[in-house]
Amino acid sequence: MFGFASDNTAPVHPRIFEAMQKANMGYYPSYGEDLLTERAVRLLCKLTGAKNAFFVHTGTSANILGMAPFLRPYNSVLCSHIAHINTHECGALQRATGARVLPILTKDGKLRTEDIRPQLNATGNYHESQPAIISITQPTEIGTLYSLAEIKELADFAHKHGLLLHMDGARFSQAAAALGINPEDMTSQQGVDILSLGGAKNGLMYGEAIVFFKHTDEIRYHIKQGMQLASKMRYIAAQFLELYGTDLWLELAGKANKMAKILEKGLDARGIKAAYPVETNAVFVPLNPATREKLLKKYMFYVWEEEKDICRLMCSYHTEEKEIEDFLAALDEAMC
């Protein structure tokens, strides 16, 4: 099987394995008290302009535990209707915090201030959940990008109304590579308060980071209670040091984005138009049931919107042009 299902189906990058092997020598203090974790935290703070950072195992835990210190059970988190926290995290935020996820219908996965403003009518009404955080995904779940100006507008709007801005950056590297900017440009410079910084979708074995631009003393307790305090945290830290301490994050993300554009071009040449702009490493295209069933015998990918026959084809750093050529050849055969 060849993988277009997700960028986290790709193998671990060899340099990440090497970094973990180097960390596998001798004894280290546990639970993040080691030198590698200290160095990795300093690195992420320097890259993003953040106040602190913590490492966890999964993207879901990064999202939920990142917001947990700032939520009470009567609060709500405003997000796009296709946001991962709303569609693919199994109610984790509600279970962990008691707070409500309040999805807002969007045309392209991107929240806008005019979408959010009507939801603030509940503020001060004790009969309703109180909005506390605006959560955006960069890039969105359909691969579209927020510009820096759009992020800044949302952050300013959030702060004006006493809210925080959270960024789900599961594919943060792909977004930064596509925009040609550094991590600080897209976060602290625009007013982001909390960032879930991805790794597994860009060459890591496992591990994500919660990056805070707003101070909190509570996060350590939430991480422990949330069962995410890794005893051997050095192995997560070592991966982040190799990925973000070099240009590897940019190289891998840029490769994934490039492969998606090549795939889009090949599909377009066959009259198959992308359903959404291909701005990062995801390509969404309509494939009729007969065609996709033939392709699914050899290739892994997801049917994203079944009622419209839209499928998601995700490229990774490990995708090669030959794999795309073979897929397009198989597509030609399947459409005959």
UniProtKB/TrEMBL annotation:
Cofactors (names): pyridoxal 5'-phosphate
Keyword presence, Transferase: yes
Keyword field contains Transferase: yes
Keywords for this protein: Aminotransferase, Pyridoxal phosphate, Transferase
GO molecular function, one term: transaminase activity
Every Aromatic amino acid beta-eliminating lyase/threonine aldolase domain range: 4-286
Domain of life the protein comes from: Bacteria
Assigned protein family: Belongs to the threonine aldolase family.
Name of the protein in its database record: Aminotransferase class I/II-fold pyridoxal phosphate-dependent enzyme
Species assigned in the record: Rarispira pelagica
